[in-house]
Specification:
alpha+beta, 4-stranded antiparallel sheet, 2 helices, 20% helix, 34% strand, globular
Length: 131
């Protein structure tokens, strides 16, 4: 039993340290979040999404707390699709929110492979940035 408790304590400590590292941000403008070739970063009062995924992607940007209360459907269209090798600048005011997004808000950038108007893939990715 002592050995199991020791392992649990180590896991809790490791997770706590990881959480602190992920949540600490003195200058969020320097943070990049990269997943499968899609990079999101905050530059000034914009979020830049860079697509190096090999296929066109579509995205939806929403503030974290607003996401908890919103039911939305993934759609691909010219206004939210980014070709491979291209990027898109999203102004803070274009991010879905219950008000105006503010510094320190967490923003979820949902993205998926853009194959048709409605999502056909079961894979929905998310990159999270802090404004």
């Amino acid at each position: 039993m002592k050995r199991e408790s020791m392992y649990r304590l180590r896991i809790l400590i490791s997770l706590s340290v990881l959480l602190l590292l992920l949540s600490s941000c003195e200058n969020c403008d320097d943070q990049d979040f990269v997943q499968e070739g899609v990079t999101t970063k905050v530059i000034g009062e914009t979020v830049v999404i860079e697509n190096n995924h090999e296929k066109p992607i579509s995205y939806f940007a929403i503030e974290y707390e607003t996401d908890q209360l919103t039911n939305w459907a993934a759609r691909s269209g010219p206004e939210n699709t980014i070709a491979n090798g291209s990027s898109k600048v999203v102004l803070w005011e274009e991010i879905m929110s219950d008000g105006s997004p503010q510094r320190e808000d967490r923003i979820i950038i949902y993205w998926w492979v853009a194959e048709s108007e409605f999502i056909t893939s079961a894979v929905m990715n998310q990159n999270i940035v802090v404004l």
